[in-house]
Amino acid sequence: MKKWLLYLLIALALYFFPWLFPSSYYVHMAQGFLYTYIVVAGLNLLVGLSGQLSLGHAGFYAIGAYVTGLCTVAGVPFLLSLLLGVLICAGAGGLVAMLSLRAKGPYLAMVTIAFGLLVEIVANRWVEVTGGPAGLYLPEAKLFGLGLGTVSYYWFIAVIALVVTVLIDNLFTSRYGRTFRAMGNSEVAAATAGVHVRNWKVLAFAISACTAGLGGALFAFQNAYFNSDTFTFDKSILFLVGVIVGGAGTRLGPLVGTIVIFLLPQWVQSLYNYHLLIFGGILLLSLIALPEGIVGGIQRIFKQRNQYSGTPSLPAPDSDGPSQMGSRDGADLNVQAAVMEFDGFRAVDAIDLQIKGSEVRGLIGPNGSGKSTTVNMLSGVYVPTKGKLSWKGVDVTSFPPHRMAAAGITRTFQNLQLFHELTVLENVMLGFHLHYRKGFAANILHTPGFLREESHFRAEAMRLLQFVGLAEKAGEQAAALSYGQQRLVEIARALATKPDLLILDEPAAGASLYEVDNIVRVIRKVKDSGIAILLVEHHMEIVMNVCDTITVLDFGKKIAEGDPAFIKNHPQVIEAYLGGEEVTKLVVG
Ligand SMILES: Nc1ncnc2c1ncn2[C@@H]1O[C@H](COP(=O)(O)OP(=O)(O)OP(=O)(O)O)[C@@H](O)[C@H]1O
User: Fold this and answer.
1) Which parts of the chain span the membrane according to its record (predicted)?
2) Which stretch of 178-192, 294-308, 455-469 has the lowest confidence by average pLDDT?
3) Domain boundary among 229, 264, 295
4) pTM of the predicted model, to two decimals?
5) 366 lines ligand 1 (CB under 6 A)
6) Does ipTM top 0.90?
């Protein structure tokens, strides 16, 4: 069914609801359902897409209610008050995100709990302003001078809920949703594709806080009265249960989750004293039986069934190759005496490295010799303890990964870092992050400009998939591919950033013999297109066959550098490898 038709049907159902259920009790219930849904839908974006946890959303709900309520009490028109409430919530959300940026998992949850409790205490104790437990009486909500009675206030909430649904759904299916999801899957991979992870986390928090504030404001005017007892920790848990039980990260999850958290208490009202026990039980049951939530679980079953019907074929582009991806001026990397220490231990010890033009440089060495640490320094994951990295004459020593990507250096990962919830095509499209021009408004409104840009980058991503020989896998979930294919997707995603230097960290690890051939073929094609490659690889035959120059590390120090023939016969290199299983390959290779 066409999306607009679905929305039209929903709009009609919402419009006729008061006629179908002509009782103020049901209309009141519908109001409550809709504003709760708005909060859960926003929280789903934060938890389900961006992978951040909030146990303090009741705090934003409260801020929305108090700011909007107090503004109208002070004589500000209702709509303007609502806008102010939402904007202040967005600011508060951004602030909480910034304060909790370094925290992850349980620590982030603790920051949000602290925020929720702080708001609850202020609401309770600052009685002169909030009314505390005695509550706050509000004037009737008015639109353009007209008072909103029960039914018209319901319609008002319904319109807002529909608009929020459309906008959030647009966000889900835009570059923004993709970026949030990618960040939730692997922050480091998103960063090396050019995503400024900190800013995107703040944005996700701000949007989610906005919707929570909107829900709170709409709640406040439902009875023109509310008190501080509403904004408890339980409330935050309830919203989160809605997201998880419905299916975090799914588009229909918030609707199903809200049905569970909103309607269930109505049905078991006589058991109010046990409501936390009931919700705890539902959450536990859901996590055990349906870890992806109700919608996620159903989707998984359908996906498994549909597997046999094959992947939908995507239009093949007319030509291929990253040479079409923009002009390049070649690599120019100069590493001077770079040192990386961990608690005094030198993993990399004063290495110098120069990479210019479009050469393929091998970086080899026995296990623990410092190759991955070097790659992490060059891609901005680690800041060297000492020394200097310069790129095209610019000092990039302390550049974070997204700035390295913007400068033209990106990488793949030894331990694959694909965005497993995205399709193969979406993974590659994410690589174009730095090249998208349409902003938030265009993405959330799905403007014609946004649609043009999406189809342009979809075609570009298809070109790259064709380039690595995976065009027919475009519609598949990245996690469903073989190891070797996933490595090729990582290469395609890295190429999408339009790098001048591509760092490949063990691209053949885990790949089959056939896949290794493919990977070597792709490496050669990348080189031919003018991109320099730094290749870290244990398969010596690959290194000896494709590299122009090889740098050898041992115990964090550079012990040799030269062409493959020179390296093969270098006594120090042979000694470093002696006893290791690679030595035979090195000599034979
Ligand atoms: N984050 C870290 N903290 C402490 N020590 C580390 C860290 N990362 C690496 N090391 C140490 O630094 C040394 C070099 O490690 P690195 O992973 O760079 O080697 P490598 O050459 O990539 O090894 P491999 O071929 O096994 O991947 C090792 O002794 C390792 O234990």
Assistant:
1) 32-51, 82-101, 108-127, 153-172, 202-225, 237-264, 276-298
2) 294-308
3) 229
4) 0.89
5) no
6) yes
